[in-house]
Amino acid sequence: MKKVVRGVAYAVLPGEVALLVCLLAGVRVPGYVLLAAEVLVLSVVLAEVVLFVRLRRQGLSAREAVRELVPEPVRRMLGHELRVLASLGRWAARRRHGVGPGDLAFSHAKAQAALLYGFTFVCVVETVGLHVLLAGVPVLQAAFLVLDVYTVVLILGLHAAAVTRPHVVRADGGLRVRSGAHVDLAIGAEQIDSVRYDLRLNPGQAGDDVLELAVASQTSVTVRLNSPVEAVSLLGRRRPVTTVHFHADDARALVAAVAAIRRERTEPSPSPGLPASA
């Protein structure tokens, strides 16, 4: 039943969006078509509720039941959007995510700040222009105003996510490599073979075992691993990687910090002195 409901939802939701576009554009839609569409949507929602209750009765938690009903790409996209919006609050409060005591944070937001601010300005100008042009169509004007304002908020959220989710060099020598709110890769200290400054402009297509996290078309740090780590894409694709290229605003300082911690961990402890004679 779950597969049937999901298949019907995939068919109904695009049709609902198309119907909404027609209504906003002023196209006259027969009443029976609107009624049928709303009945279908309501039926899908009720079926999802029934399945959710059934899964809960089978002993699954609410989170597990949602995972069973909602496809992973949809969950991950919604989760990414929520993290982006939450980053705006952290940005305003000057709080960073995932930086613990003894950890060192390294930003990767400066290189793309000018681009995102410029894009935000263009979107604001477009919002004002459309609002004026659509003054004679109030419904369409209101719909585009909401969409445009939300787009501006999301763009600012992307920058806020990059600011509040920096790369982290952990106190134990491990790394947490991030790209805004959509990539968060934890690398244990024992998995790192080497970390070096490696400026690469316009990086090309990487191999299956290479993860590239470019910012403003550049990466500046290369991490080689002695054992693979699992990288998860925005939509949930998983693959093992043994090389990670990413950008940090102060890449040399990040490499030096990792080297210093690794050196401290590998240096032999001083020999104990001879016991004092009685």
Topology at a glance:
Layout: H1 2-24, H2 31-57, H3 62-69, H4 72-93, E1 104-106, H5 110-133, H6 138-164, E2 167-169, E3 175-179, E4 183-187, E5 192-201, E6 210-213, E7 218-232, E8 238-246, H7 251-266
Parallel strand pairs: 6-8
Antiparallel strand pairs: 1-2, 2-3, 3-4, 5-7, 7-8
Describe the structure.
It is a single chain. The protein starts with a helix and ends in a 12-residue tail after the last helix. By secondary structure, it is of the alpha+beta class. Helix 1 (2-24) packs antiparallel against helix 2 (31-57) and helix 2 (31-57) packs across helix 3. A hairpin with a 5-residue loop joins strand 2 (167-169) and strand 3 (175-179). It is 53% helix and 19% strand. The model has no long low-confidence stretch (mean pLDDT 85). It has three domains: 2-70, no CATH class; 80-164; 167-266, no CATH class.
Total individual domains: 3
> What's the mean pLDDT score?
85
- Unreliable stretches: none
Biggest β-sheet strands, sense, barrel: 4 strands, antiparallel
**Count, helices:** 7
Structural class call reads alpha+beta
In sequence order, what are the helices and strands, one letter per element? HHHHEHHEEEEEEEH
Number of strands: 8
Short description:
It is built from seven helices and eight strands, in the order ααααβααβββββββα. The protein is of the alpha+beta class and 278 residues long.
Salient structural properties:
278 residues, alpha+beta, globular, 3 domains, 7 helices, 53% helix, four-stranded mixed β-sheet, single chain
